[in-house]
C-alpha cells in the first residue's frame, strides 16, 4: 500500500493491485462487454434482416400474401402474451406456496428432498414437456373442459364447443406453468431464506403466529425477489417453442376463449413450424417476427428491472 499527499496536506492510502486482482477485474469487464456486444449484434442482425419485410410489397411475400406485416404478426403476439400471462397467473401462487413450505414449514430433510426435486424439474428438456402435454396431459383435461363448459359456459372464456382432443390454449398455458414453476420456486425459496432471522424472531416474540410472521416479515422483504422470479418465469414462457408447438395448431386467431379447438398460437411456435419450408422473403418475415419477440421480451425484462429497482432501497438491515 502506498501513501500519497495532496496539495491540502491530506494523505490518502492507495491500494496496490496484485496481478490476481487485475486479472479478475479485467476478466469481469471483458465478460460484461461480451454480453453487451452479443446482445447488440443480435439486435442489429434482426433489424437488418427485417428491413425487406417492412419495405417490400406484401403481395410478393410468400408468407404475408398481400397482408401487412403488423396485421399478420399481431395474432401471434397476442397468443404469446395470452398464454404466458395465463401460465404466470397459474404458476406464481403455486411457486410461492411451495417455496414457503420448503423454507418455513417442511422438516429439514423433507425440505432438502423437495429442493432437489424442484431443481431437477428445471433440467427437463422442453420437448419432453411438450410431448407429455400433447399425448398425456391434454386427453386428461377433456372431461374437465366439458365440465367447465357445462357449468361456466355463461363466461365468454368457457363458452362455445370444447375441444375433443384437449389441445387448447389453456392446455398450452398449463404446460408452460409447469415449465416455469421450478425456476420461480427456486428463486422464491432462496429469497425467503435470506429474510433476516432477527425480523422473524421479533415477530414471533411479539406473539405473531407463523403465518402472521411470514406475512409481516418474510413477504415484504422478499417482494422484489418474487417479482424477479416471476419475470424470469414469464421470460421463459414468452420464448418457449417446442412445448407450445406440440400442443397447439398454427392458427393466427385473436380470441380469449380457452376451450375451443381453434386457438391462437405463439411467435416461437410459428417460427419453428414455418422456418423449414421458408425461403427468400419468407425467411425475412420470420426473422422480423423474431425481432418482435425480442422487443417484447426486452420490454418485459426492462419492466422487471424497474420494479426491482424501486424496491432496491429496502434491506433487512433497515
UniProtKB/TrEMBL annotation:
It comes from the Bacteria. The chain crosses the membrane at residues 28-52, 72-101, 113-135, 169-188, 241-259, 286-308. Part of the binding-protein-dependent transport system for phosphate; probably responsible for the translocation of the substrate across the membrane. This is Phosphate transport system permease protein. InterPro entries: MetI-like, MetI-like_sf, Phosphate_PstC, Phosphate_Transport_Permease. Belongs to the binding-protein-dependent transport system permease family. CysTW subfamily. It is a multi-pass membrane protein. It is found in: Cell membrane. The keyword Cell cycle does not apply. Residues 77-304 form the ABC transmembrane type-1 domain. PROSITE patterns: ABC_TM1. Its main location: membrane. It holds the Pfam family BPD_transp_1. Keywords: Cell membrane, Membrane, Phosphate transport, Transmembrane, Transmembrane helix, Transport.
